[in-house]
Specification:
21 helices, 6-stranded parallel β-sheet, two-stranded antiparallel ribbon, alpha/beta
Length: 483
């Protein structure tokens, strides 16, 4: 991490990867007369100075203290100070060491500074209480990060950040020009879920709408006559797509109400990245050649709402963090977090592969085995049939990628004690995405194990991850005092 963090691009990647954002100005201050962006840092011996100077800035530390430093350690500290991007202060053992390092470091601390608290206990509550005091500085010892992990700085910063009550429905008002970003985001989430349910209703009912029949020049009965499994195959593709749309709706609804509404800056970024991928997939028609009117109309309606949801960054922090709990519980939740991130990453890769197949070969071998035919035979039945299937297949891959990005980043950045909305959002998205896929494959007897193995694996990983994380994520947060 020190090697990556020593480069500007690498430092930004680490900070973004851990979901770290700029600390509020209220937590800025100084230590030994040296200005710092946040009065939170680490104290290390000279042997760890170089690694700390390079690794700590992207983790959210505001200062590095090297202590104790003797004249014999001066060269080591000078090398560590070169090219630093974080204030470096030294607690020197003798005047000789101080004189040798004065041109190279930002300042010198003393062991009797009443404003500096050295933290050996990883308690976030204790550290945050110090930061809430004007001028209070917390310097963690290396053992704190070994015990609590690299996210400790961010957790302390969030706990020390002043927050206000979250807005409620009656605060929204009736004038759309004054609607907050979280309300627009919620409308997009509900719209996506509604569109997914509508797509499912069409698939379970008429299957083909008028524009489908016009494009193909065939009725449902003629499709069935061309291949007895083809209608069921179309239904399986579209039900799976509909479930993914509902899953995206659940993710966006959770991000809107639990994240953006409460001022979490990372929630907007998750929403933005996922939505950008999802909306761009509308251009798949340039390859497939089939423009679906309802898909296009849904995009035209929802995209302006999406823009309204992301055009402004969240305002004042409005979260209410739960108190610390048992450390073993947090560690178990980290295992669950890893499982969800791995699952989301797998879904993204799967979505990319499905999009690629949909835009090129269209069918995989198990599809053709289920249909009992070949691509050439289907093209002979109707030259527009394969592009028609390609539209559904590629669109599903794009939607899966959009959902996967939201799952990965929500799991990576939203994992905090008491954030029950994260648990329920991921659980709802998993149910909406996985269950229709399993049910529809069973209903049409498309049960090839290799074809469904990723689904079974995703269900097992997601279920295990959520079970491990539930006590941590669903821990009760304290009620905010009224007034």
């Amino acid at each position: 991490m020190a090697a990556i963090g020593s480069r500007p691009t690498g430092a930004r990647l680490i900070a973004r990867g851990f979901g770290h954002r700029h600390a509020p100005k209220r937590l800025a201050g100084e230590i030994a007369g040296v200005p710092v962006t946040v009065r939170l840092g680490i104290t290390v011996p000279p042997s760890l100075a170089r690694e700390a100077v390079r690794a700590m800035p992207p983790l959210g530390a505001g200062v590095v203290e090297v202590a104790p430093v003797s004249a014999a350690d001066a060269e080591t500290v000078r090398q560590a100070a070169a090219g630093r991007s974080i204030p470096l202060v030294v607690r020197a053992c003798d005047p000789e060491a101080e004189a040798a390092l004065k041109p190279y470091v930002d300042g010198f601390t003393s062991s009797d500074d009443p404003h500096v608290v050295y933290a050996s206990d990883p308690s976030v509550t204790v550290a945050a209480a110090v930061l809430k005091e004007p001028g209070g500085v917390v310097l963690a010892r290396p053992g704190v990060l070994v015990t609590a992990g690299p996210g400790w700085f961010q957790r302390v910063t969030e706990a020390a950040t002043p927050t206000a009550p979250a807005p409620v429905l009656r605060d929204v008002g009736r004038d759309p020009r004054r609607w907050p970003a979280w309300w627009w985001a919620l409308l997009v989430g509900l719209g996506m879920a509604g569109a997914g349910l509508g797509a499912a209703a069409i698939t379970l009912g008429p299957v083909l709408l008028w524009y489908d029949r016009d494009y193909l020049g065939m009725t449902l009965h003629e499709l069935h006559a061309g291949n007895h499994h083809l209608v069921h195959f179309l239904q399986h593709d579209r039900i799976t797509m509909a479930g993914t749309m509902v899953a995206i709706g659940a993710l966006y609804t959770g991000l809107a109400v639990g994240g953006i509404r409460r001022g979490w800056p990372w929630a907007r970024e998750v929403y933005l990245l996922s939505g950008a991928i999802g909306f761009l997939t509308v251009f798949y028609f340039l390859v497939t050649g089939f423009v679906e009117p309802l898909h296009t109309a849904t995009t035209i309606v929802l995209f302006p709402m999406f823009v309204a949801a992301v055009r402004r960054t969240p305002q004042a922090p409005r979260w209410n963090l739960a108190p610390e709990g048992p450390e073993p519980e947090r560690r178990r939740s980290l295992a669950g977090q890893l499982l969800l991130i791995v699952t989301g990453t797998g879904l993204f890769v799967g979505g990319a592969v499905i999009s690629g197949v949909g835009l090129t070969a269209v069918f995989v071998p198990t599809d053709l085995a289920f249909l009992g035919t070949s691509t050439q035979t289907l093209e002979a039945v109707n030259p527009r049939l394969v592009p028609f299937v390609a539209h559904d297949r590629a669109g599903f891959g794009g939607a899966l990628m959009a959902a996967a990005v939201a799952i990965v980043l929500l799991s990576a950045w939203g994992w905090r004690r008491g954030e029950a909305w994260v648990f329920w959002t991921l659980a709802a998205a998993a149910a909406a995405g996985f269950l229709p896929a399993v049910v529809v494959h069973g209903a049409i007897h498309y049960t090839d194990f290799i074809h469904l193995a990723p689904v079974y694996f995703g269900i097992a990983m997601t279920g295990t991850g959520l079970l491990l994380a539930r006590p941590y994520l669903c821990s009760k947060a304290p009620a905010r005092p009224k007034g």
